[in-house]
Design a protein that fits this description.
With 304 residues, this protein is mainly α. It has a single domain, classed as Lysozyme. It is built from 13 helices and no strands. The chain is globular. It starts with a helix and ends in an 18-residue tail after the last helix.
Length: 304
């Protein structure tokens, strides 16, 4: 004799499975999601590759702007910002903007290559502006310490954030690290690492500087501004680029113009290609990127 109760239960189970399966099939699996920043903690090896101490608390790039870039909102009106960049034909006059991103470009078109250069230059220049203000605060705090003047609470809080970000409280070390990275160098490396932004994986991740999370994957950033900040932090903090920072300090102490071509000789170990330095220099000369290195004439770099 058939067990009708068991048969009825089995039939209901089958219908439930079918409904769930059909519901899953109706979901939009082709929709691309905007890549977010890194929210998980880095492992010690990953932290070390970014110039971080393996003993300090893992740093999350998701909060990178909240630390010492909190006053500078990312420009989200892409069409307006891109129009501003396209309008400027003189590389030396590209406006500094904290850009949200760059459209996926066909690098075979010269106009697209020119736009990519301007977009990276615009954001790198904006990051440098902020870094120069940070440096002014460091110099101010050093001077107040020498004269036994108590800083304000706001100054102390800002200074503490800068020390955490650059991983030192020593004034001499801070002045080596808290300084701009030549825009020409940033642009050349972004071009080399991303092929003018044409690499789809790099485009979706805003990983234009090829910062590696593991041997097979890159760090992801929620916008271009964060990507540039992470790149400048790598150059300014990672022990691999100590010679870069030393040469830059000598230039700034003499109040001379930062020379991206000269400093490019100090980042040869950034990429895995043994000719990496030569490739960067070739790009800088081919696209006349030296014009992006505007003369820095601010009190922050005098009388150190």
């Amino acid at each position: 004799m058939l067990n009708y109760r068991s048969l009825l239960t089995a039939s209901i189970s089958v219908w439930i499975i079918v409904v769930v399966h059909c519901g899953n099939e109706n979901q939009d699996t082709t929709k691309e999601t905007t890549p977010s920043c890194i929210y998980e903690k880095e492992t010690p090896s990953q932290s070390a590759s970014l110039g971080m101490s393996t003993t300090e608390k893992s740093y999350r790039y998701a909060n990178i702007r909240d630390e010492i870039f909190e006053c500078h909102r990312v420009n989200r009106s892409l069409n307006t910002d891109h129009h501003k960049i396209l309008q400027e034909t003189d590389l030396n006059k590209v406006p500094y903007l904290a850009l949200e991103g760059i459209p996926h470009l066909n690098s075979s078109l010269k106009g697209n290559r020119d736009f990519f250069i301007k977009a990276i230059a615009s954001t790198a220049g904006k990051v440098n502006e902020i870094i120069m203000k940070q440096r002014q605060l460091v110099l101010s705090m050093r001077e107040k310490q020498r004269k036994h003047i108590n800083p304000t609470k706001h100054e102390r809080d800002r200074f503490d954030k800068i020390c955490r970000f650059y991983q030192t409280k020593d004034f001499s070390e801070l002045l080596l690290k808290v300084a701009p990275v030549p825009v020409s160098l940033a642009v050349a490396q972004a071009v080399l690492e991303s092929q003018f932004g044409s690499d789809r994986i790099i485009y979706l991740s805003n990983a234009y500087f090829g910062l590696a999370k593991t041997k097979t994957s890159l760090f992801k950033f929620d916008n271009l501004f964060n990507s540039v900040i992470a790149y400048t932090k790598t150059i300014n903090v990672n022990r691999r680029y100590h010679e870069f920072r030393r040469q830059r300090a000598l230039t700034l102490q003499k109040n001379q113009k930062i020379n991206g071509i000269k400093l490019a000789s100090c980042i040869g170990n950034y990429g895995t290609d043994k000719n990496y330095q030569k490739l960067v220099l070739k790009l800088m000369r081919l696209h006349n990127l030296h014009v992006l290195d505007k003369k820095i004439d601010m009190p922050a770099f005098k009388n150190q």
